Amino acid sequence: MTPLGLSVATWWWIAVLVTALFWAVLVPPQPTREYRMMAAIAPVVGALLQFAHYKVKHMDPAEALLMYSTVTLTFPLGLGGHVRKLSERALEAQREGRPADQGVLYPAVMVQLFLAIVGGMVAYFVLKV
Question: How confident is the chain (129 residues) per 10-residue block, as mean pLDDT?
Fold first, then answer.
């Protein structure tokens, strides 16, 4: 039985739409070409890792696509509205010689990201049944 009784083809469309949302929300606000490339490649790397997990665990294709979609959707929901400021803070830290990820997250982002991660996990386990 596939999640929510949807066909595998429907889950493919959902995965494509979630990936497009990821690219639309997280790629354009990036301040440099390097950051845009890293953001654009992230869903592709996630898809490759999910494919490997699917093969090793012998998962149902629809369940694997559900897992990919919920994980990929977590990032636009968790970082939406903060991407430009986060990118600028990372760029500023890099210019100052600090690690680019040190002190970049601020409380509002952490709360939003935490809620998106928890919501994604709950959605995955509820929809999986």
Answer: 84 96 93 90 96 93 94 94 86 81 80 95 89
Question: 52, 19, 18, 23: which is closest to 38 by C-alpha?
Answer: 23
Q: What is the CA radius of gyration of the chain?
A: 16
Tokens of 107: 């409380």
Distance (Å, whole) CA 60 – CA 98? 44
* Residue whose pair of structure tokens reads 């636009």 in the numeric block: 76
Alpha-carbon span 102 to 119, nearest angstrom: 26
pTM of the full predicted structure?
Answer: 0.87
Number of C-beta neighbours around residue 65 at 10 A:
27
- 61 and 8 in contact (C-beta within 8 Å)? yes
